[in-house]
Amino acid sequence: MMPEQISSYRLEGEIARGGMGIVYRGVHMVFEEVVAIKAIFPELMLNPDLRERFLNEARIQRRLLHPNIVQVREFLADQDRFYIIMEFIQGETLSQYLRQVSPLSTPEAIGIFHQALDGLGYAHREGVIHRDIKPSNIMLTRDGVAKLTDFGIARAVGSAKLTRTGMAVGTAAYMSPEQVMGTQVDHRTDIYSLGITLYEMLAGRVPFSRPKDSDSDFPVLTAHTSEPPPPPRQFVPSIPAHIEAAILKALAKRPEDRFQTCAAFQAALALEPAPAVSLTAAMRAKPVGVANPAPSAPVNAVAPAPAPPQPRPPSPPRPMSREPEVKPRSAKLARKEAPRRVWVWAVVITLLVLALAGAAGWRYLATQGDFKLMATLAGHQGDVTSVAFSLHENLLASGSDDNTIKLWDVPTWQLKRTLTGHENHVESIAFSPDGKLLASGSNDKTIKIWEVATGNLMQTLKGGSNSVLAVAFSPDGRLLASGNWDKTIGLWEVATGTLTKTLTGHQASVSSVAFSPDGRLLASGSDDKTIKLWDVATGEVVKTLTGHDDKVRCVAFSPDGRLLASASGDTTVRLWDVGTGKVEHTLTGHKLWVQSVAFSPDGHLLASGSHDNNIKVWDPATGKQLQELDGHKYDVESVAFSRDGQWIASGSGDRTIMLWGRYQ
After folding, report:
1. Mean pLDDT computed over every residue of the chain
2. In DSSP terms, which residues pair with 406 in a beta bridge?
3. With 90 as the cut, is the pLDDT of residue 469 above it?
4. pLDDT tens profile 23-38
5. Domain boundary among 59, 86, 113
6. Using alpha carbons only, what angle is made at residue 635 by residues 435 and 596, rounded to the nearest 5 degrees?
7. What CATH number corresponds to the domain at position 53?
8. pLDDT tens-digit profile of 589-622?
C-alpha cells in the first residue's frame, strides 16, 4: 500500500514499479514542488549489496550537478525504508523511444548523443564511472533534454568496489570487453557502452545480440571480447562514413585504442564544430511514458536516479559590452569603422549597384541590417522556452521551465514583475493585441490569463487532457487558440473562458498555433510533420501542408498574411504561399532542429532559432540568409521581434534571454 506521506512530501500516485522497488510522484507540502520518490522494497534492504548500491546511487548523483544528469534532491530514511528524492521527469527513456522510432535520423541521434556525451564527460571529470550506460538509463524529457540516470553501480575513482574482482557488472548488450572479463575498468568502459548506444540509435540494432533461439547471453559476451562489430552502414547505408568510423573506434576491444575522452568522441562525430548540445524534442510527439523509470532488476542495479542541473553563471540583466560572434552579411559595420574616404567610395559603389540592380536590389540592401548582442537577461532557473514582445507596451515577456513568467522593461531590460502560479513548465506565452493580457500554456495542463498591468491572475483554463504546448490570441483579441499534447487545438472565448471549439485532425501533438492577420485562418504545426490551415469560423481544415521530413515545431504568418513560415526538426525553415499551399523557399543552414521562427513587423526579415545554439536572420523575399547570431551556449528555444523591428529577443536552454539590437 502506498503511504500517504513521506517526510515533507505528499504522495500522489505510483509512477512506475520494477524488480527493485517503486517510484512515486510526490509534492513538497510547503513549496508545492513536484518530485519523483524512489523507494527500494523493504525485503531487499536486508541484502547488504543491494542496500549499498541504493546508497551509492544517492551519494554519487547528489554530487553531480549537470543539466544532462538527473538531479537528486535529497536522501531520506524512514524506519525500514530508504527514499531518494529526485527531479520529476516528464518523458520516457531512450530505450522506450527506440521501440517506437528506430532507427533514428542522423541529426536526431547526434542531437541526443551529444547531450549524453556532455553529461558523461562531466561525470568523468568529477571522477565518476557510470558502468551501466545503455538506452534505458538515458531519459528523454518532453522538452528536448537527454539526462543520464541510474548510477546504482557507478564507481567513484579511487573508491572501494561494489563488486568482487572477476565479477562482471553491467548489461550484456552494452558491456565493454573489460567488464565481460571482470578486469579493472576505467572511464573508457563508458565510452564503449556509449558507442554501442549510438550504434543502436543509427542502425536500429546492437552490434552483438542474442540468437533468437537462445536464452543465454554467453554469445553476446563472447562477441564483445573477440568479434569485430559489423559496420553499422551495413544495415543503414545513409549513416555518414565519418560517424561510422567514430562508432567503430569507440568499440575498439582495447581501451587504449578507443577515444580517451568524451570530448574526443564528440569532435570525431562532426566534420565541422560539434553540433549543439541539444536534442530534437522527440518527446512532444508522444504521450508521457514514465516520469522516471522504475527501479530495475538486480542485474541492472537500482533504477534510475537523478542529478541536478549544472549551475550556469548568471549574466547581469542590463546591457553588456561583450559582443557575440556575429557574422554580418553586409558591409555596413565595416563602413562605419573605416576612414571617411573609404566610406565615400563605398557610398558611390553602393549607388552604382543600386542603379544596376534596380528596385529588388534596393529592397535587399535596405532591409538587411546588422544585429548585435546588446544585453543578456538572467534570472530564470530553468530553460527559457518562450519570449514575446508586447505590441502596445514597452514590455518583453519570458516563460521558463522554472514554472514562471517574467516581464522585462524595454529598453532598460530591468525586471518588472515575476508571475507565479503554474505548477509545471511554462511552454508558451502570448500578449493580447492590446497588450493588456498575457496568456501562458503549461505542462500542468492549464492556460492562465494574466492582467499585465498588475500581474494578477484573471482566469485559469483547463487546456486538455495533457500539456498545453502553444497559445495565440486572435487579431481582435476575442479568441485564444491552444495547441495541445493530446493532438487537439482548443479555441477559447477570452471574455468568458469558454471552450468554443475543439479542432481534431492531427495525428500527434500540436506544438504551435498562429492566427492569420485577418483572423480568418488558424495555422497549426504538429509532430505528425504536417501543418494545417483551419477556417476559424467553421473549424474545418482548409489545407494540409506536407513536405517536412520531421516534426513541425513552429509556424508564423507574415504580417500581410501571404506567407507562412514553418520550423522543423528536419533542420529547415519553409516559406509557404498561403493561397496555393506551395513552398516558395526552403531555408537551409541550421545544423540541428529548428525550434522557432518569427517575422519582423514589416515582414522584411525572418528570424529562426535552432538547437544548434544559433539564430539566423533571413530575407523572406529571396530565401537568402542575411546574418547569423552566435552567443547562446545551449539551444535557442524561441525568437521574437520587437514592435519596431529594432530588437530580436532569443530564449535559450542556457536559461538566459539575449537581446540583439540593430546596429546604428
Report:
1. 81
2. 398, 418
3. yes
4. 889 998 888 889 988 8
5. 86
6. 45
7. 3.30.200.20
8. 999 999 999 999 999 999 999 999 999 999 999 9
* CATH number for the domain harbouring residue 442: 2.130.10.10
Domain boundary among 20, 52, 86: 86
Measured distance CA(441)–CA(482) in Å, rounded: 8
Does residue 382 sit in the same domain as residue 247? no
| Residues 505-541 as b or e (16 or more Cβ within 10 Å = b) | bbebbbbbbbbbeebbbbbbbbbbbbbbbbebeebee
For residues 82 and 127, state if they share a domain: no
Same domain (yes/no): 46, 125: no
Q: Are strands 657-662 and 510-515 parallel, antiparallel or unpaired?
A: unpaired
Choosing from 132, 143, 444, 528, which is the catalytic residue? Answer: 132
Name the β-bridge partners of 627: 328, 617
One domain, residues 417 and 554: yes
Quick check: is 190 catalytic? Answer: no
Q: Which three cell numbers stand for residue 358?
A: 534596380
Containing structural domain, residue 63: 5-86
Determine contact, residues 505/497, Cβ cutoff 8 Å: no
Pair 82, 97 in one domain? no
The full DSSP string for 353-389 is HHHHHHHHHHHHHHHH--EEEEEEE---SS-EEEEEE
Residue 51 lies in a domain: yes
How is residue 412 written as a grid cell? 532598460
Sheet holding 541-545, edge to edge: 510-515, 521-526, 531-535, 541-545
Same-domain pairing of 12 and 102: no
Number of domains in the chain: 3
Measured CA to CA, the distance from residue 290 to residue 293 in angstroms comes to 6
Residue 525 near residue 531 (C-beta atoms within 8 A):
yes
